[in-house]
Amino acid sequence: MSSKTINLTLKVWRQNRKNPAGDLETYQANDISTDMSFLEMIDVVNEQLTEQGIEPIAFDHDCREGICGMCGAVVNGRAHGHMPETTLCQLHMRHFKDGNTIVIEPWRATAFPVVKDLVVDRGALDKIIQAGGYISVNAGGAQDGNTIPVPKENAEKAFNAAACIGCGACVAACPNASAMLFTGAKISHLALLPQGKPGAKRRALSMVRAMDELGFGNCSNEAECEAECPKGISITEIARMNREFIKAAFS
Amino acid sequence: MNWFIENISTAIGKKLLMAVTGLGFVGFIFVHLVGNLNFYFGKEVFLKYVETLHKLDPLIFVAELVLLGLAVIHVSTGTLLFFQNLRARKTRYAVNKSAGGRTIGSRTMPYTGFFILLFVILHLFQFHFIDRSQMTPYDAAVNTFGNIGFALVYIVAVILVALHIRHGFWSLFQSLGLNHEKYMPLIQTVGIIFAVAIAVGFAFVPIYIRAVI
Ligand code: FES
After folding, report:
1. pLDDT score of A2
2. Cβ contact, residue pair B7, A205, below 8 Å
3. Successive 10-residue mean pLDDT values, chain B, 213 residues
4. Phi, psi angles (nearest 5°) of residue A236
5. A contact residues 90-109, partner B, Cβ 8 Å cutoff
6. Going from the N-terminus, what domains does chain A have, and what CATH number goes with each?
7. How far is the CA of A89 from the centre of ligand 1 (A)?
8. Are B170 and B191 in contact (CB under 8 A)?
9. For residues A218 and B11, is the Cβ–Cβ distance under 8 A?
10. Which H or E element spans position A7?
11. What pTM value is reported for the model?
């Protein structure tokens, strides 16, 4: 397949110390290969900006293979762009057409303050984990494999929930900026496994409280998170968290 | 009691409050619809139904108090959620598109809820707080819906109720933790059928009155 090139107009959110309120700036992205990823496209634009003496666009990224959860921006109103189950680094420019205008904004949530341009502080998600998203085990020699039997079905469900990479797209896509899909996935993947059972009640209560204290919104079952999650995590994880919470709070 | 208040005021606690009170209203509106169907059988049948209802009076009074309690919880929690959720995203997106999760029902939930509240107040004054020695509920309906304006307000209101149920029905199961790949499609379908039944069942009363009586 021969590679094509396209020309795009970008409207990018720029915000820094000199421009603390932030605004959308317009740039031209010319001769973009359709084989590039979205982040590579921004790299190219940044090189041009640097040559022109303009500060390059700041954005988060790390693995660039869809597994670390560092990247993410709202592209034309959609978290990680319009392709299903795709992180921004895995979104390819072949999904855009020559002459398209692309609006790029950071995740918007009060709990995710903008650090610079497209970079937001997602430390709030770490704080939810710190509140209970772990298990406690005695240190010592590693246990033999398979000494604790786990039914295959549970293992698979736990794995589906554990696929969460913590990118924050669920919060960004939620009309209420709620972190329920993230928290639901984290509570679920531990609650489904025997190792997670002892601390399940305390975990459900403290993680849900942390989520509230950090300023995330309340879930109203809009299901936008599940439609936007790059790992295809389902709102059944939220339902499971609700069950875990009910068990912990009222029994 | 402290632990209860603390847990019920979390994000999940609030959605449980909305779900449980919402379930109460789903039950109520279903009974209300079934009762109203008597209207299509003429004045006598309808008044007999009203009479039977009043024979249960102490029970009805308790039911009214319960409904009032549910309404206070549902409306105040809903209002709180609305404002908290606005605060959770202070800067809005310049471009915002749905990924396909939301429905027209879910999008409009707080707004349909607000108009339903206004409508319920009007509705109570038109049909509940009437002087029954002067007017039977049957005549109240015929008189009220003789006014085209009130008939239209009523029809629009029941459509808003149906929209609210469209999202509220499946949503309450999800909130209570009852979401399973196997049953959710069925719950979703039942919710839509229920919403349509409510809209059609209620909206036809004024149409019937204006066309037939
Ligand atoms: S950069 Fe790691 S998931 Fe996109």
Report:
1. 60
2. yes
3. 90 97 98 92 92 89 96 98 97 95 96 98 92 87 93 97 98 96 94 97 93 82
4. -65, -25
5. 103, 105, 108-109
6. 5-115 (3.10.20.30), 123-249 (1.10.1060.10)
7. 6
8. yes
9. yes
10. strand A5-16
11. 0.94
Q: Which amino acid is at B198?
A: I
Give the DSSP letter string of A10-40. Answer: EEEEEEETTEEEEEEEEEEEEEEETTSBHHH
Our mutation pick for probing the ligand 1 site, out of A59, A70, A118, counting the most ligand atoms within 8 A of Cβ, is A70
What is the CA A64 to chain-centroid distance, rounded?
Answer: 14
Give residue B135's pLDDT: 86
How far, in Å, CA of A158 to CA of A163, rounded?
9
Please answer yes or no on whether B15 and A218 come within 8 Å at the CB atom.
yes
Tokens coding B31: 């009974």
Q: List the domains of chain B with CATH numbers.
A: 2-89+103-212 (1.20.1300.10)
pLDDT digits (tens, 9 = 90+) for A18-64: 999 999 999 999 999 999 999 999 999 999 999 999 999 999 999 99
Assess whether the C-beta atom of A164 lies below 6 angstroms from ligand 1.
no
What number is the ipTM of this complex? 0.92
SS3 state of residue A82: coil
For A54, the token pair is 């303009």
| Encoded amino acid at B149, one letter | G
Provide the chain A residues 201-240 that lie in CB contact (below 8 A) with chain B.
205, 208-209, 211-212, 215-228, 235-236, 238-240
Q: Is A128 in the pocket of ligand 1 (CB under 6 A)?
A: no
CB contact under 8 A, A108 and B13: no
The pLDDT assigned to B54 comes to: 87
Q: Given ligand 1 and candidates A83, A87, A107, A229, which is best to mutate, with the most ligand atoms within 8 Å of its CB?
A: A87
